[in-house]
Specification:
By secondary structure, the protein is an all-alpha fold. It contains 5 helices and no strands. The longest helix is centred in the last third of the chain and has 19 residues. The relative contact order is 0.15.
Length: 103
């Protein structure tokens, strides 16, 4: 199943607005066909970088923060299908996402 299909079949399904935002963020970055978890993390990283450039008072940031959280959660869920890969992915995710603030 491709990433689009995997996202469409998440259970329980997130609220419609969040689901649409997550999908928009995922499909705004190039998909890594052989690395769905990496695609989800790349989308989270790109969205977080955009958030870092916006005003914290902008109420629209709340939805994007929730979407970033969902993207990272989904990346971990996807990686959990092969548990041996989960620790490396978690370390990689922390490194990538924590580096966003220093850019």
């Amino acid at each position: 199943m491709n990433l689009r299909g995997w996202l469409a079949h998440r259970e329980p399904s997130p609220p419609r607005v969040l689901k649409e935002r997550v999908e928009a963020l995922v499909f705004a970055v190039p998909e890594l066909p052989d690395d769905p978890a990496g695609s989800l993390l790349a989308a989270a990283e790109a969205a977080l970088a955009q958030l870092a450039r916006r005003s914290p008072e902008d109420r629209a940031t709340a939805l994007d923060l929730l979407a970033v959280d969902a993207l990272v959660t989904y990346a971990m869920e996807y990686a959990a299908q092969t548990p041996d890969e989960l620790p490396a992915l978690a370390k990689h995710a922390m490194s990538r996402l924590s580096g966003v603030a220093s850019r």
